[in-house]
Amino acid sequence: MGRVYGPLLEPLSAGQSRVIGQLGQSLDGRVATVTGQSRDVNGAVAFVHLHRLRALCDAVVVGVGTAVADNPRLTVRLVEGSSPARVVIDPKGRLPDDIGCLQDDDVRRLVVRAEGQDGARPKGVEVIEVPCGPDGALAPAAIRDALAAEGLQRLLVEGGANTVSRFLQAGALDRLHVMVAPIVIGSGLSAFDLPPISALSDALRPEVTAYSLGDGEVLYDCAFAADGASPA
Length: 232
Ligand SMILES: NC(=O)c1ccc[n+]([C@@H]2O[C@H](COP(=O)([O-])OP(=O)(O)OC[C@H]3O[C@@H](n4cnc5c(N)ncnc54)[C@H](OP(=O)(O)O)[C@@H]3O)[C@@H](O)[C@H]2O)c1
Known about the structure:
Distance between the termini: 23 Å
Low-confidence stretches: none
Structural class: alpha/beta
CATH superfamily: Dihydrofolate Reductase, subunit A
Helix content: 10-25%
Bound molecules: NADP nicotinamide-adenine-dinucleotide phosphate
Number of domains: 1
CATH class: Alpha Beta
CATH topology: Dihydrofolate Reductase, subunit A
């Protein structure tokens, strides 16, 4: 398992980033039930792995959907190490100020929003503005670069499916950790939401190493090249 963390620790020069996405899913590719419940998709070892990833990164990034649905703490509690900065991508400013991850615990807290959005955030919460496309999307590469400019070079994009899929589609993920739990949810939120392809030759084919986490749970460590395809 130690090998899985090596790529995250490689030295980076100023302005460079390393972005890792993570998703915990069922055998049938669901990250949550139809009611949005996702906390116990994966087991205890997967949680330890997630906390280790947090401890190795400068910032943990979630979409506003996850922040609102789960009210996650996004701190490091199950392994040694410091909690990373917490970043919520909230283009339209719908994240409530009293949400847990914005509360002051001496860790940096940042909100990424569309350029030109009004509205103050609680004292100490940093606001990063990123240009917004006509479809309301913030380019993942622009988010990554803006965070790198803030000294946050190693990013864990922790969810949800929508946010991870946007980074994946944009070729802005270096690695993706997919933890597959031996359960079938049957319906609910899919892990990936990408544009349709008609030919399997167009499927993304990352370089993959699989690790058993015990109890039938498997971690797929997927390496992507900068363009989102398989590495050379
Ligand atoms: N199993 C797991 O590993 C896991 C992990 C995390 C979360 N979850 C579950 O996933 C669910 C929430 O996930 P989700 O996919 O619905 O939402 P999400 O990815 O957490 O948030 C999506 C929202 O974030 C904003 N956003 C993110 N990136 C953006 C970008 N590049 N440009 C513009 N807007 C961007 C948009 O906000 P607006 O809608 O305001 O435009 C978008 O609708 C919850 O049920 C949670 O429990 C599961």
